[in-house]
Amino acid sequence: MNTNYEFATQRIRLTFLQQIKLNAGNKYIALYKAIKNCIQKQELPHNWVIPSTRSLADSLELSRTTVIKAYELLMLEKLMIVRPGAGYRVFSEQQRPPLVPVNNSLEADSYPGISEKGASFLKNISILNRQNNEVIAFKPGLPPIDIFPINQWKNLLNSYWRYIKASDLSYGQSTGTALLKMQICTYLQVSRNIKCSPEQVIVVSGSLQSIYLVASALIDKGDGVVLEDPTFPNVHSIFKSSLATLLPIPINSEGIDMDALAAVACHQPKLIHITPSDHYPLGIKMSLQRRLELLAWASKNKALLIENDYEHEIGNLKNSLPTLFSLDKEQRTIYLGTFNRLLYPSIRLGYMILPTHLVPVIEALQEHSHRFVPPSLQMVMGQFIEKNYLFQHLKTLGEVAQERADCFRKHFEENNHSMHIHQQPFNSLHFVGHFNKTKSIAEESQMIKLLDKNNLSVYPLSTCFIEQEPQTGFILGYSTVRPVVIKQKIKQLIQLLQEK
Which among 173, 431, 230 is positioned nearest to 314, based on CA atoms? Predict the structure, then answer.
């Protein structure tokens, strides 16, 4: 029997037994009231499949005529509908009642208070970039999802499930499957000249989880954390919520400002988070000399580095520089990478390469929280790399992204008297748009809300700044929008800005 039928039949049977006592000798009325009661109490939700008349009659030991009469009454009251080929379904436009009744008579101090760190995360959730998930033009952080090789991925996934053994369905290793970890090592050795062992690789759901794990492992209340200013709002939010003492450092043409960094040495920072391949959001590439200076500073001050190499495949198409991880001779660098910005965001698959001395504590945190990324996803990703599909996709991605970047810049700068694009090399999958006339944060926010109402999604530039005077503008993702649509959407964006 269909599982939906079984659940529905169980609910109906229990209520029917109660109703039959109240409606002795009138079985179809008892059945009608039983099903109606289940619908009104949301025990049978809207669109839930109801057993056929014959099936329910057999289950309840009733005549089919009795069930048909009950169903007819329900359909008359529009509590049930019948669709050709789909059978009977619940139809209820009632709003779902609260699952737990609210008791307003209790005072707030009747419950245990949340922790200091919990309160901190709750307070800082507003820093995170979160907007309409249905809109893709011009949301940052999205790759060209329309060129993802779906058929290759689907074939690998089908093959995985075709040959899987029952024993493979048990729990997975918290740090990742052996195949994917080995393939990540190979991939990074070729693409970034990073030499590491699979034991150093931790497979995660993305960079945000990586940073959360590192913060949980290393940061106590008041510990110093150096952040570039500006930087990812999400990174800012995690470390602030972890009760760290934030030490924002401005950047210059070579990367993080070493003079400003020297001034905060007295705070003895534990961590430095940087985006050297492509500073977020301004696109500055850290010079080789600055990378060496930063490593020397970290060594002298006994600090660790988090090298967030997001979108490095784009940032290193031209003028590739060695990673901090590959230059580091003292195991002070934690390297972060993600497939979410290369393949598609909902894949939720990333990785970090740890110094060996941090592996045990991060693995312990994984075991106590996220446990592991689904092994099926990891196995398919491992084969995607092994069969050279990833490198093929990256080549296409680079070509498509370059074409769309040129298209975006051309049309954005035509007849746009409100904004201009920040001058930066082709390093990432977003542009920064600056206002030609200074705007307040309130005005920036109003414009973003207006764009959102018109199905255009951008991120505010101001939220990237921590301590220094915020600049206002937009962070615009271009790569997931086809050229013909880019032209249309930019025209719409310019018109909205002019009206504002």
Answer: 431
